[in-house]
Amino acid sequence: MRNCFAVVFFLSAISLPLWAQSYPQVEVFGGYQYNRQDGTGFALNQNGWNASVMGNFSRFVGVTGDFGGFYKTSNGVDFKTYTYAFGPVLSLHHEGRVNPFVHALVGRGHFGESFGASASASSNAFTMMYGGGADVKLSPRFAFRIVQADWVFYHFSGTNLTKNARISTGIVFRL
């Protein structure tokens, strides 16, 4: 019994540093997004919003869910694009003010076009986003995402759109 108590005490003592984690368990981001879609014979510059929720497993590894919507009206046609993607994140949570990260996300995109109330069309696409960015720590609970830049790939209806990019900035809530 005494040996069992000693083992439990020893394991508890060495795990104490893990309880005093110096990285956020959850990070919630919300902000502005600029998106450039470069297709076959067209290019769209869209503005919108970007939101994500990231759970950190350790100081360096996490997983994120990323959601976005961007919009453009051109020649009377309303273009709307929505994306949702998930994947791993590698980040450098350290005691400094700047926390860089990279991610690889996979998900779906939804494209919609409408011309007034008379005509509309939409399609869904497989989406991949690869990129990263940097957060500047403002306080233990808040950070400012100075930039998040991603290359975005869309595949729908037998067509690949590969020359796409998005840039986001905003506020990060750290829990």
Give structural notes:
The chain is 10% helix and 71% strand. An eight-stranded antiparallel beta barrel has the order 1-2-3-4-5-6-7-8. It contains one helix and eight strands; from the N terminus they run αββββββββ. The protein has 175 residues and is mostly beta strands. The protein has a single domain (2-174), classed as Beta Barrel (Porin). The two termini are 40 Å apart.
Helices and strands in order, then pairings?
Layout: H1 2-19, E1 26-38, E2 43-56, E3 61-74, E4 77-91, E5 98-115, E6 119-137, E7 142-156, E8 159-174
Antiparallel strand pairs: 1-2, 1-8, 2-3, 3-4, 4-5, 5-6, 6-7, 7-8
What tags apply to this protein structure?
single chain; 175 residues; mainly beta; eight-stranded antiparallel barrel; 10% helix
Tally of separate helices: 1
> What are the secondary-structure elements, in order, as H or E?
HEEEEEEEE
CATH class: Mainly Beta
The class by helix and strand makeup works out as: mainly beta
Low-pLDDT regions = 7-20
> What proportion of the residues is helical, as a percent range?
10-25%
Largest sheet: 8 strands, antiparallel, barrel
* CATH third-level topology: Porin
How many domains? 1
The CATH architecture classification is Beta Barrel
Overall geometry = elongated
- Arithmetic mean of pLDDT: 88
Cα-based radius of gyration, to the nearest Å: 21 Å
Strand content: over 45%
Give the termini distance in whole angstroms.
Answer: 40 Å
* Order of strands across the main sheet: 1-2-3-4-5-6-7-8
